[in-house]
Amino acid sequence: MSQTAPTWFGHPRGLTVLFLTNMWEQFSYYGMRALLVYFMTRQLMLGQAQASLIYGAYTACAYFTPIIGGAMVDRFLGKRRAIIIGASVMAAGHFMMTFEPLFYVALATIALGNGLFLPTLPTQVGDLYRRDDPRRGWAYNVYYVGINIGGFLAPIACGTVGELYGWHYGFALAGIGMLAGLLIYLAGGKHLPPERKEEQVAQPGVAAAFDRRTVLMLLGVGVAVTVFRSAYEQVGNTVALWSDSGVDRHAGSLVIPMTWFQSLNPLFVMLMTPPLLAYWRRRADAGVSQAPALRMALGALILSGAYLLLAGLVWLGDGAPTAWPWLVLFFAAFTAGELFILPTGLGLFARLAPAGRSTTTVGAWFLIIFSGSLSAGAVGSLWSRFDHGVFFALLAALAALSALMLRLLNTAMNK
């Protein structure tokens, strides 16, 4: 696309369309997720262990279907058609959540729609620019902001409606958000790039294959990150349950809705990312660059410390509710750990990909999210069997184990 084409905010107008489409899709996803565990335990009266397993299975499937969906998009559907179908199916799934007998069907429907939508929309961002356009890299930063704006607003809007007026209304609001994203995408279609075939990345004469050492390194990182996500994914599961039963949410005469705390993670992502990137850039310019595996290990340790904080608060409180500002501090530390490990891990997978296999390698990252989410569901099922302080200490131990694994992998990665 030409750099002289009409722009908004210095970028192709299509970026604004994709930004808003993505923002509303994230609003729908995180809005529904903020209500899910409460809906299962309070409305459907499911046991906590069963609800945790269902939560883990759903989040796992939401990240497994894009692996299959991406192949379908490339082979049969095309990007525009896939986004329209995926958004429509997800919206239907959200509205199906308002009918209790359709609960499991609704979860499956949302996951299937996400399989077409999630891997497709980001690729259209790159299609807006020529490969040598310097704005291309910044475009993904802008796009990522949309993810966190949607994730920040969703628990506040859908969570408040769900808590005050009924869970079904909160789910319906999430569906309305998905429809808003679809309508924006359709209305802005004229600003989006035309369909084009994917460019072959591999150079003539270069083997597009994985060597054994690379496969073993990626596998090792995958296992370490799976262990990490067993603890990481608890924020929407057992930590959400604890924010209801174990936290004093009074702020003067007001009671903070429990779902609002789910907005803290995306809020801190938006606040922390710019200074953290600037810090890493200064260190790189000074010739002090940290190895990816060591940075990831540090992130896992930070998250371990966040869960140790919760364990200490439970033990010191001796049964009394914890003041809500401590939960805010937990989310700040939690997010800092996330920013050290997850974006770095994704970048590491992209960097180690052989020529012509970048999509396959990055697709493997979704498999890690899938396995980590399943593992998190199994770990979360232990919540009602342990003292809550012991459970949080277990999560801290899992994150610390992940850090140890990454530290041991560092030497091999450097080679």
Model description:
The structure is a single chain. With 415 residues, this protein is mainly alpha-helical. It has 2 domains: 11-199, Growth Hormone, Chain: A (Up-down Bundle); 209-415, MFS general substrate transporter like domains (Growth Hormone, Chain: A). The chain is 74% helix and 3% strand. The protein has 14 helices and 6 strands. Strands 1-2 form a two-stranded antiparallel sheet. It has a two-stranded parallel ribbon with strand order 3-6. A two-stranded antiparallel sheet has the order 4-5. The longest helix has 31 residues, at 13-43. It is found in: Cell membrane; Membrane. Belongs to the major facilitator superfamily. Proton-dependent oligopeptide transporter (POT/PTR) (TC 2.A.17) family. InterPro entries: Dipep/tripep_permease (IPR005279), MFS_dom (IPR020846), MFS_trans_sf (IPR036259), MFS_Transporters (IPR050171), POT_fam (IPR000109), PTR2_symporter_CS (IPR018456). It is a multi-pass membrane protein.
What is the structure about, briefly put?
This protein has 415 residues and is mainly α. It contains 14 helices and six strands. Its main location: membrane.
